[in-house]
Structures are given as C-alpha cells and as structure tokens.
Here is the input.
Amino acid sequence: MKPALFKYAKPRSLEAALECLAAYGDEAKVLAGGQSLLPIMNFRLARPAVLMDLSAVPGLADISVENGSVRVGSMVRQRDAELSERLQRVCPLIPRALKHVGHVQIRNRGTIGGSIAHADPAAELPAVVAALGAEVVALSLRGERRFRGSDFFAGPMSNVLDPDEIVVRIDFPNCEGMRSEFLEVARRGGDFAIVGVAASASWDGAGKRLSRVGIAAMGVGGTPVRLGAVEQLLEGSPLDDGLIAQAADAAAATIDPPVDVHADSASRRQILRALVDRIIRRVAT
Amino acid sequence: MSTDQVTEAVETVAVECTVNGRVVSRHVPARRLLVDFLRGDLGLTGTHVGCEQGICGACTVVVDGAAIRSCITLAVQADGSTIRTVEDLSEDGELNDLQSAFKMSHALQCGFCTPGFLMTLTAADPDEYPTDGDIRELLSGNLCRCTGYQKIVDAVHESWGRP
Here is the structure.
C-alpha cells in the first residue's frame, strides 16, 4: 500500500502553479494537505502521473474579513482555522464543524480548500459551504470562476472544476452575532459522518423567530444537501414544537439518501429528522 | 510575473530536514512516504507502519511542533522541516518522564502503538487538555489493540500530574 510512481512539482508562485496545471491537464492532481489524497493514492485508487504541491505558493493561507465576507485561503490548515479567534467570532460554524474532522493529527496537515475540493458527501466542510452559501473561488490561466454553495459539488468526490483550475479561496458570509451549530452521527468520533447537519441563523429571542437561516446535511446524498424547504419554513416564523416537527419532516422528505454498509435509507431519514429537530432547538436558545 | 518554463515535475527530489536534532540530506523518490524515509533511509524504526491510511496513529511523529501522520505524508513534504521521532525522547539512554509513566502504568503490551501515542502526547500542551475527557479526546486519534486504553490514560494522568 504505497503510492504508484509519479512525478512531483513544487511551483513557487501562483502563476507557476497555474502554468503547471495548464501544461499537465488531467494528468496532474493538486496536493494541498494530502490527508484525503494520500490515503487514496496509498490504496492506488488514484494514480496521478503528476502531483503538484501547493505548499510553496505564497498568499493562499490568509484569513481576512472584507466587505462583509470572511475570506479563507484554500491552504489554511484546518487546525489553524479551528483555533482561529477571528473565525470563532465572524464565522463560528467553521471551527464548530472542524472539531468533527478526523483527529488533531489530520487537522494539523489537512487544509480548508483541500477538504472542500475533495467533495466527500459525508465530509463536514462541504456541508458548511452548502449551508452558508459560501463562494468557492477558483483560478486558472483562463481567469477566475466562482461557485456558490452546493453548485460547487458535482457528485461523490467530484467537483465542477476543470483540470487546470485551483481553488484559491473560499468566501464565507460574515456571521458575526449569529448562532451556529454542527451535529454529526458517526460510529466513532472522528469517523466520517453517517448523517450530519450544519446550521447557522440569527435568533430573535423576544419574538422567538429564526432568520437568515442556512442549513445543510451531509451523508444524505451524493453531495451535501442544502435543506431549502426547512429554511423556508423557519424563516421569520414564530418557533414552536409544531413548526420544528414540520421542519424536521420536511428535511426527511427532501432527501434521497444512499444505502451502504453503515445505514439504509430509512435509517438515514430517521437520523436526519432527529438531527434537524435537535439542531433547530440548539440554535434557537 | 510569468515564468519562462513550466515548473518541472520530477521523480526524484532533494530533501533536507532536521531529524532528532541532526540535519539530513537525501535524494528520495517523490513517492516515498515519510514513514518509510524515517524507517528505511534513516534507520529510525521506532515509528511504525500500521494502516497506511492515517487512521491508526502508529506512524505519528512530530513535524515543526505538530503531531502528524507520517504514513500519509510524503518525504518530500518534509523538506525544510524539523522532525522528532520516538527515538528523540529518551535522555542519555534513560526513559524520559512520559516514557517512565507509560512503563509504570503498564500502558503498553506489544508496544506497536506506543511510539504514536508518545509523539501525540509530546506535541500536546497539557494546559489545553485540562480534563480526563480532554485527554481521551486527544488520544482518540491513536488506536491500541492490547491495553484497553485505561492504562494509557492513567500514564498521562501520572505524567501530567493529574489526580
């Protein structure tokens, strides 16, 4: 279980990286943290002819707040994002979700952009992108393209990028002052989720209303699923047990979950229903 | 700024890093895993190969102060880094405090997982793990098949001066 033979490139600038990818096309895979790619290469499920290491390209690991959006560089290490006081303040859903990603040793190397680009439908960060409608910013020699939320994901382990494109940044909405919560069911802590839910909203305690609701589920389809029906039900409506039950039912009805060794469709629907009920109550406090 | 030629992709790469205080320079195949570089090229066989997927933690070493999985890291990714392996823990041939605590608490049987646990703990700041639950969470990324974990937790409590 060692990787097959490949050639390794380590560009020292973004321009050089884009030129490298343009030259090698779909023969090349981008190496960010490698925490998803290397296991797959060790299994030889992926055998790229060229591995292009992004770690020497400057300017991809910044976190900044600009014009109401929280810009997270694609090479920001997951552990740095998890511990970032700035993110805790302006986009707390990200550090919350990261606590469920693997173990600390994985998060020390894994990157925000790498996990999102890897597009595992049971992974945490893609669900956060979907829930918040975050914009994934991709560059190639041909220019910049942006994808909002779920639009970035095409299917299991598949995103919409062309082979010559790199994710350079993800722009999240500024959620300062809002509530967020992340819930996941897995066999063991650190495992991939069987089902998980990410939620962000503003809570008006006096009127008992949620607004600016963003909620998405993972492990319930080939990509993270934004639960638009749930958001519409909750938006601006006075919250009570009846509405919460209605929202949870709507979530279960929305999804067409996969069947695998971990759970069947009925179980996934049941788990999602319970998690949506629980997450609404947690956010609305 | 544009480059005159595309960054070359090569099969063999020069790697220079500091391992257990010593600077090492080697030319390695790009596909060589860091764990195999440490064990094979440098003869540091204290780091163990378990799952080669990043799950079991037996391969855990400390790179630039952080605990990482050497089985899903390429040797070339360690260029320019400072690496510590389990061989670096003993002082003048004597077990250090953490190792002694493992020994006294019977926190190892076959010993295969032990270097991984030791390096995870070596990289950790005890102040960030104040409770027993925090310690167990920290250790959750290292699997042990022999001890049932309680003795390992006991060793950490002993080493970190916890009740």
